[in-house]
């Protein structure tokens, strides 16, 4: 069993975005965000349509994942206003490896939010959590997500052929990583 993941205090922030735990108050907005076709297109685990029941079911998994050390899901919020901008998650793969995934709400994309959040969560994982490697993968056609990874300092390692089944189709994904030694 992994050690519990302890959220940093203060929460990760760069003055523009802050990463914070999700609250039940966020769930209606989460449902609205996940109605976006682009999120459904690139994130296979997100059921479509995404309902309030889906949001509540997901929310109930957050604390057990933290306690078990298997992962942390965080809201990306505007550091000044607290507006929900997106989400980012970190999952332990064991042996010092963590997988990260992220999304940003439609009307706030293209402003560097995901790259900022990715830098924050990666720094936390590589520093406080002692990760040796943080990795992510993006569909080969999801160029914006690949740009996020590159803007956050991740290195493209290659293409994972037929990596994942997404809505009945096998999809290739690009693998990116950031190592503790890259910092």
What labels describe this entry?
alpha+beta, Aminopeptidase, 7 strands, globular
Task: Give a description of the structure.
This protein has 183 residues and is α+β, with helices and mostly antiparallel strands. The protein has a domain at 17-131: Aminopeptidase. Helices cover 29% and strands 34% of the residues. It has helices spanning 27-33, 37-42, 52-68, 113-126, 143-151; strands at residues 17-21, 71-78, 84-94, 97-104, 133-139, 155-166, 169-179. Strands 1-2-3-4-5-7-6 form a 7-stranded mixed beta sheet, sandwiched between helices. A hairpin with a 2-residue loop joins β3 (84-94) and β4.
The rounded distance between the terminal residues' Cα atoms is 28 Å
Strand order of the largest sheet: 1-2-3-4-5-7-6
Q: Beta-strand percentage?
A: 25-35%
Low-pLDDT stretches:
none
Name of the CATH architecture of one domain:
3-Layer(aba) Sandwich
- The DSSP helix count reads 5
Give the CATH class of one domain.
Answer: Alpha Beta
Question: Which of globular, elongated, flat, extended, rod-shaped describes the shape?
Answer: globular
Helix content: 25-40%
Radius of gyration: 16 Å
Overall average residue pLDDT: 93
Q: Helix and strand string, N-terminal first?
A: EHHHEEEHEHEE
CATH superfamily of one domain: Gcn5-related N-acetyltransferase (GNAT)
| Structural class designation | alpha+beta
**Sheet of most strands:** 7 strands, mixed
What's the count of strands? 7
CATH topology (level 3) name of one domain: Aminopeptidase
């Amino acid at each position: 069993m992994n050690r519990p993941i302890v959220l940093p205090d203060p929460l990760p922030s760069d003055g523009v975005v802050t990463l914070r735990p999700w609250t039940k108050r966020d769930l209606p907005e989460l449902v609205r965000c996940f109605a976006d076709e682009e999120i459904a297109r690139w994130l296979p685990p997100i059921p479509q349509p995404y309902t309030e029941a889906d949001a509540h079911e997901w929310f109930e998994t957050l604390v057990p994942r933290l306690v078990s050390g298997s992962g942390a899901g965080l809201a990306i919020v505007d550091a000044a206003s607290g507006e929900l901008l997106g989400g980012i998650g970190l999952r332990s793969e064991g042996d010092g490896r963590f997988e990260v995934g992220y999304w940003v709400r439609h009307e706030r994309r293209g402003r560097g939010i995901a790259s900022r959040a990715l830098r924050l969560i990666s720094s936390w994982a590589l520093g406080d959590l002692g990760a040796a490697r943080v990795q992510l993968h993006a569909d080969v056609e999801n160029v914006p997500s690949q740009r996020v990874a590159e803007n956050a300092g991740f290195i493209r390692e290659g293409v994972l052929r037929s990596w994942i089944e997404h809505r009945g189709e096998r999809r290739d994904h690009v693998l990116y990583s950031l190592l503790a030694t890259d910092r």
